Amino acid sequence: MSYLSRPLDFLKQLNSLMSDDGWIALLDVSCFISGNLNRNSVYHDKVKAFEMRSYQTGLYDFDFGAKMQGMLKDAQFEIVYFDNDVSDPELNFSGPASEEVIEGWSARLSRMKKLSEELGLDYMEFREDLLASLRSETHEKRGNVKFVVAKKLTRPNDSGIESVAD
């Protein structure tokens, strides 16, 4: 969903195609990069700004997880369960990351060309700063992974009698 330029339209279309007892479960991230960067980092605000511009230009929504519940409601779904702080060993954890997670983040950072262009000559320093944050004993879980389950709203006729077209 984070790559869709119009996720609300997609959810509305999906709702229209679902049976009346249909449901949907979404899991996504919020503050994907900045949420794992030390808040005191000199790059924190720059990365937050990059995440926002990425969303505004339709490239990628680094904060889609925070918007899921509202969009599902706007698409006529009823929220039946949510967890705004799903533990995840790669994206939402406290304490130091495992070496496997560090390798995964390192590979991911190697593919982030737009962020690299944005930070220019500072990119390598930012990269080391983020990896150091992930390795730190003080790395904190900050609600970066969200999960929501919703069902299609049904609108029974108030009178209990079905409408008949004229």
Low-confidence stretches: 156-166
Domains counted in the coordinates: how many? Answer: 1
Distance from N terminus to C terminus (CA atoms, Å) equals 41 Å
Number of strands: 3
Task: Explain what you see.
With 166 residues, this protein is of the alpha+beta class. The chain has one domain. The chain has helices spanning 7-17, 44-56, 68-74, 99-111, 113-119, 123-135; strands at residues 23-29, 77-83, 145-152. A three-stranded antiparallel beta sheet has the order 1-3-2, covered by helices on one side. Helix 4 runs antiparallel to helix 6 (123-135). The protein is elongated, with a radius of gyration of 20 Å. The relative contact order is 0.23. Mean pLDDT is 91; it is low at 156-166.
Explain briefly what this protein structure is.
The chain has 166 residues and is an alpha+beta fold. It has six helices and three strands, in the order αβααβαααβ. α4 (99-111) packs antiparallel against α6 (123-135).
